[in-house]
């Protein structure tokens, strides 16, 4: 399984991904799910991936080949991130369809992507590309997108992320979301990749890679647990005056 987050706020982007792949209990390995494509200097485009690893790698190979061979449509020729999302969706569907009828029982070639970045002169943003090739983007009401094992890490994002949240706060929130997911699902695991992109910078120089024994990650985990315990202990007791006998329905 996988867990990836893309957050787009006023000041820029924060992207987070785990690195564990799981094809059964005997086939657990580590693969980076954050991919930076070799585009022109006037743009920065990052992909996060979840789903079938073979499909993901085939799509990435095609993206890089199209750039290298200067194909009519590639990540250097698109004018908008939405065009990049549509192009990525078409490639993904093509790769999935190639293997969908392979006749292997229990084989699922589906892959899901998060595409984020900025093209000079346009706003930064993040898009979720579904296996079917269609996509959605972040909004001022919902400034984040998730793929993979998203349910455990969603509550903290819902509570704390707003469109005007600072990038440093977003980064800490994403780490808590990731840690909550790792705690509840063993198929999500380190190393954890974290990338902060500040709008209009066209620079990717704020990248972090956290191993499970990273001192900062351990500190964040410990403080979060302590504050949760303090909050739980401070909850008011049930009002016994509201208590009454339970009568089963007839």
How would you describe this structure to a colleague?
The chain is an alpha+beta fold and 250 residues long. The chain has one domain (3-232): Aminohydrolase, N-terminal nucleophile (Ntn) domain (Glutamine Phosphoribosylpyrophosphate, subunit 1, domain 1, 4-Layer Sandwich). The chain contains five helices and twelve strands. Strand 3 (20-22) and strand 4 form a beta hairpin. Helix 1 packs across helix 2 and helix 3 (154-160) runs antiparallel to helix 4. The longest helix has 20 residues, at 81-100.
Which structural category fits the helices and strands?
alpha+beta
Helix count from the secondary structure assignment: 5
User: How many separate domains make up the residues?
Assistant: 1
Head-to-tail CA distance between termini? 45 Å
CATH class category = Alpha Beta
CATH topology: Glutamine Phosphoribosylpyrophosphate, subunit 1, domain 1
CATH superfamily: Aminohydrolase, N-terminal nucleophile (Ntn) domain
Record the SSE blueprint.
Blueprint lengths: L2 E7 L2 E6 L2 E3 L5 E3 L3 E3 L6 E9 L1 H16 L12 H20 L10 E9 L5 E5 L5 E3 L6 E5 L5 H7 L6 H18 L7 E7 L8 E4 L4 H19 L17
Antiparallel strand pairs: 1-2, 1-10, 2-11, 3-4, 5-6, 6-7, 7-8, 8-9, 11-12
Helix pairs in contact: 1-2, 3-4, 4-5
